[in-house]
Amino acid sequence: MDEPRIFKKYIYISKEVKPTIEDYCTKNNITLVTRFINEYNLGKFMQTELRNLNSVDYLILDLSAFTQLTDDDEIISKIVLIRRLYKLRIIIIAEGYKHGNMLLGKIFNLGIYNIITATDDIKFKEELEKVLSDEGMSFGNSIKYKLDNNLIGINQTTKVIKENFIKVKQTVSIGIAGVERHIGATTLAINLTKYLSELTNIKACYIENNNHESIINLATNKDAIRSEAMNKISYKGIDLFIKPKNMSDILSNNYNFYIYDYGAFNEMTDEERMSFLTRDLKVLVSGSKQWELPNLIDTFEIIGMDINTYLVFNFTKESERENFRNSLGGYWKERTTFSEYVPEPFEVKNKYFFENIVKPYLINTDIKEKKKKFNFFKKRGKK
């Protein structure tokens, strides 16, 4: 794990210079990277000025700088995008905002609790000290901004939110392998393909890159569409290729993500292992039982500490997970997740994990809205 920096950095955006913020940060070794003082449209501002926040610890957004030129929904969508792309703390300045404000309620519902609403200098400084502390403001500190979900729903009934993505890299290859047979690699590979296929503007396919010949069994399903020419099965909205011999045919379909199921790592040839290691992303699937760990250790010795490789453990008791994670050591500890229960491969689970590993290859460009009609005069009891 990276050591925390002693000297942290911040950027703040406001309608006016905030001496209280700057003085406090100077005294507490929090370095100002830059300040932006004006009124902005947050979407355009992100495209022109706020394009790289990788080295920043705190991003302070004064809502007064945006609310005149940016509607509430766009503010929310851009905050979501910032959180998707960067690991930093977002601090919201909302001086004078009262409990029950719709925008603050939406921000709170994103899980952002570092909110300053005080208008007098003493209380502002107290809240500033809290949001910049190591622990930040807690859920309890900010629960006052929470709105009833039904109230938020009423105010959003005219909008259907849809995420749009663009690709950072034209094609991305992902290799999935179990450290041994029957450990869940195929299930994870199909589940990841399904997750990607449900993203707007993204095409993904599953490729059976092993000798298990499991996928062929899907062809017997009445809802499956079989293409003999391409050795392809289309099922539940995704394309699955059975041990393809000619990759050029698959590549000609212009998929954005190719998910390769390598089967069991301990059964792979040297050539297959080399192929696995050349993928943009690699995911190893393992169990955590005592007799399953030797194969995992053997796999570690071959792949080394690859920053593009992640570990997924199946069938680990929740009560044992933290101790087991700690036993892996610092490097692999941070690259490990424990799978949710996945009884149906074509119903997406582990969304947080999938989002985390593909995030470097996707950018959420915007949120488009579509009008939705409601009959507010419908009589009670009628459907």
Strand order of the largest sheet: 9-10-11-8-12-7-13-14-15
Classify the beta-strand content into a percent band.
15-25%
CA gyration radius, whole angstroms: 25 Å
Q: What shape does the CA trace take? A: elongated
Structural class: alpha/beta
The tally of helices reads 14
Highest-level CATH class of the largest domain:
Alpha Beta
Q: What's the number of extended β-strand segments? A: 16
User: What's the average pLDDT?
Assistant: 83
Give helix and strand order, one letter per element, not per position.
EHEHEHEHEHHHEEHEEEEHEHEHEHHEHE
How would you explain this protein's 3D organization?
This protein is of the alpha/beta class and 383 residues long. It has two domains: 8-157, 3-Layer(aba) Sandwich (Rossmann fold); 166-367, Rossmann fold (3-Layer(aba) Sandwich). It is 31% helix and 24% strand. It contains 14 helices and 16 strands. A nine-stranded mixed beta sheet has the order 9-10-11-8-12-7-13-14-15, with helices on both faces. A five-stranded parallel beta sheet has the order 2-1-3-4-5, with helices on one face. Strands 6-16 form a two-stranded antiparallel ribbon. The longest helix is centred in the N-terminal third of the chain and has 14 residues, at 72-85. The model is unreliable at 149-162 and 365-383 (pLDDT under 50).
